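TASK: fixed-backbone design
INPUT:
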């Protein structure tokens, strides 16, 4: 994933947060909007976010970049996904749970979307992420004297 693609994703999240904030304000302000209409508006907005991120490989981001996308550290080695990211994962993505179990994501089965502090119990170990992969290559080059 190149720099321009990442900028596109960050802009999508920035715009989504702006639109969500505006929608919350409108829902709170317009008493004439029915609960059903409000829920429909929220689902449509959520759908737009998911469409933009569908099948994105989150491991191509650094941990710092993922934090900008509302991922959060569970411990020093695991960064957890927000709920919306589960709806974007490609089939076959390797994720880890908070108990350290590695799971291969299967869209037909999904994953539990229960959250704590805004994130699910699933994410990535730092060794899966782009910055860690680059560090591993550099370390191997140093060891081999290249």
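OUTPUT:
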């Amino acid at each position: 994933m190149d720099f321009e693609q990442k900028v596109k994703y960050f802009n999508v999240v920035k715009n989504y947060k702006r639109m969500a904030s505006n929608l919350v304000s409108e829902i709170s302000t317009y008493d004439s909007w029915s609960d059903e209409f409000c829920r429909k508006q929220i689902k449509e907005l959520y759908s737009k976010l998911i469409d933009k991120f569908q099948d994105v490989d989150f491991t191509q981001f650094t941990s710092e970049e993922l934090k900008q996308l509302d991922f959060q550290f569970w411990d020093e080695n695991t960064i957890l996904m927000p709920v919306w990211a589960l709806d974007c994962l490609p089939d076959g993505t390797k994720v880890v749970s908070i108990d350290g179990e590695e799971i291969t994501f299967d869209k037909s089965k999904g994953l539990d979307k229960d959250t704590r502090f805004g994130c699910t119990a699933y994410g990535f170990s730092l060794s899966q992420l782009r910055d860690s992969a680059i560090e591993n290559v550099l370390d191997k080059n140093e060891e081999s004297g290249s």
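COMMENT: The chain has a mean pLDDT of 89.
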